[in-house]
Batch of 2 targets.
Target 1
Amino acid sequence: MWTVCLCIAALVALSFVHWIHRWSNPRCNGNLPPGSMGLPLLGESLEFFASNSSSDIPPFVKERMKRYGPVFRTSLVGRPVIVSTNSDLNYYIFQQEGRLFQSWYPDTFTEIFGKQNVGSLHGFIYKYLKGMVLNLFGPESLRKMLTEVEQAANKSLDMWSRQETVELKDASAAMIFDLTAKKLISHDPEKSSENLRENFVAFIKGLISFPLNIPGTAYHKCLQGRKKAMTMLENMLEERRRRPNKVQRDFYDYVLEELQRKDTVLTEAVALDLMFVLLFASFETTSLAITFAIKMLAENPHVLKELTEEHDAILRKREDSELGLTWKEYKSMKFTFQVINETARLGNIVPGIFRKALKDIKYKEHTIPAGWAVMVCPPAVHLNPSTYKDPLQFNPWRWEESELKGASKNFMAFGGGMRFCVGTDFTKVQMAVFLHCLVTKYRWVLMKGGDIVRTPGLQFPNGLHIQISEKHKIRARGGRNHPSRQDDEEADHVYC
Ligand code: HEM
Ligand SMILES: *[C@@H]1O[C@H](CO)[C@@H](O)[C@H](O)[C@H]1NC(C)=O
Ligand SMILES: *[C@@H]1O[C@H](CO)[C@@H](O)[C@H](O)[C@H]1NC(C)=O
Ligand SMILES: *[C@@H]1O[C@H](CO)[C@@H](O)[C@H](O)[C@H]1NC(C)=O
């Protein structure tokens, strides 16, 4: 009897040791990149998600680059992962989309964004959806949208300037959400009894959290937020079905038209998931970018000065001062686009882009095993001192150098290859127009907050509180660092 027990115990111990050994030494038909798989199951997730307040390459990645080189292995959220900080390998990964690599996000993301979100759809249906999104946010639509974007920015700024202070992260998120929701589903927050955006806010708070779905956890609230938002979107679509518009006006009209076609590949579930992703992608990312840009402008007055000059010049050149921005004026904002590029480079709003290896892939002396996840790490490329001199400096002028311009390999804030962000142009319009309205008409002072934390996603834990006032109608009130002052041209540039 004893011997049997002993044998079983020994067997259990042996297979445990074997399992641990297998965990830290995964099988590979070739030479695995160096690295550590961390603890069993947990891997190195805790180190990866540890927060840090610097804008530099995340310490997790930086330490491992030093120890193992530019390509290393690890384990995150239960998956073996190859991390690539090498711009050539990143480029190769983007170019081989659908052949050697495929878009892949952790299971928790799929749970949260729906099983049929754009990120995890492949092949035919994906191309179809992409066409649909480009139809909405492509250059032709954006040209028509310009005035609307200007009016939204104008209206928000006017409102904020009447408040004592405004928290820019939430306020700009609200501005962008309302505009996107209007374009997509003609949602008018002033006329609707339910607050669609509130559900998205609850959703976002738990997005990067431990996936424990029990009442009280952030993850649970996140799923609840998604559920409520989805129900609202469903009801709105149903409502539209009952009372259709005569001409196609928004995305829902388009969806209903498509669903009625016999040969369509679109289903209601796919359309609703897509709607959710678009609403989410548009307001969270762009509002982070706007907030980061304003923080950078406040910290770099010489950049603000040049930006203001560019936009004042646009107004001076305009023949009819009653008219709003034209597409030609928008296209002429050279320095503004440099500021936007620099914001995207240093902001690193997307800290990792995930793929899955479809086959064993040999790259230089290493092999990436089939089935493994691959994480492209944009911050490591954007903060590489041999490409970007003094990488932690916010320096829009660096984009004047011709080497940077064509060098798509060294700029991947919006991804690359086939899966390049479809919202890029939309984001640029939003940011450029917002900056235009802001710097031509207003000045602002930092009041409180503005600290950043990266977990590794960019966050503003205490927001960015600013006080905005009209340039030519200064009220007698002061910011944190200075008393109220005269409204002269000098002051425009010295403060804020
Ligand atoms: C600062 C703003 C933004 C940043 C930094 C950003 C970044 C990115 C990145 C890095 C990707 C590639 C993901 C991958 O390859 O797996 C991506 C894809 C995507 N983005 Fe954005 N994005 C921004 C704004 C937007 C906006 C405003 C929209 C919506 C209108 C949007 C919609 C999408 C969609 C639908 C995809 C998936 C495209 C695909 O899988 O082919 N993004 N974005
Ligand atoms: C951020 O990381 C650096 C090392 O890269 C470390 O010295 C610093 O203490 C970290 N800061 C925080 C707030 O965790
Ligand atoms: C911007 O807003 C102001 C007042 O809020 C208004 O007088 C002006 O016409 C608006 N301009 C545009 C282009 O919408
Ligand atoms: C911004 O970056 C993109 C991608 O590298 C580049 O094509 C573009 O020319 C840059 N814009 C400016 C104004 O430098």
Target 2
Amino acid sequence: MDFADRRQVGKVPGNSQKSTLEMMAKASTCFFCGKLGRMGYDFFVDLQYDLARSAETVRKYSAAGRICQYHLWQLASMASPLDLAPTLAAIARETAERWQARGGNSEKHIKQRGLSSSPKGCCLVCTFIQRSETRLARDFQKILATQNGRAAYEQSLGFCVRHTALVASRMDTKIAAFILDHARKRFSELSQDLQAFSAKSASQRRGPLESVEKTIFSRALVQLAGNRHFTNPC
Ligand SMILES: [Zn+2]
Ligand SMILES: [Zn+2]
């Protein structure tokens, strides 16, 4: 699985705010996404391990709707088929029981027996990501309330669209204006970089992309759409 942001941000050591500020200033994409990606990745590594060894975890995740379709695919891309097979077997068994348990063939009954019987928003992975995101928003709110935090943020490429809005909405008017002004400059620069990339690509369409050009493209995607693995809470 390609957790590009994890590699870019690397380990955040302990609670050292100085290190966090330095890393935020140097991060090559949204630092918020990077930290969220690392938390999500660690969660998945632990989950993968537990599902392969703990019948209780398998039971927990095989109940209706406890892992959404997106995260089941994501898990499958990381886990070995042998490790994940017991979980899939339990989900299939639970699904079979659900189809059996509810009689009737009206539209309502059919819907109830399918995926819509899962209460929206109950995926355990989505819930973990939502909670982690809220916690990080609180952390960044504290960081950006400080002079040093804003100085580091000013040097950085800033957050993606989603996290710019999330953090700015938690700040007072003056600091929110600072964050939005920074975002305006950075997204304007990003647009110019992409236009230059596009013009060059058009003139050298047959040549391979240089690594710096690939970076512009992937950076733009993270800044505009967020971390591709961890910004889709249900
Ligand atoms: Zn982000
Ligand atoms: Zn999910």
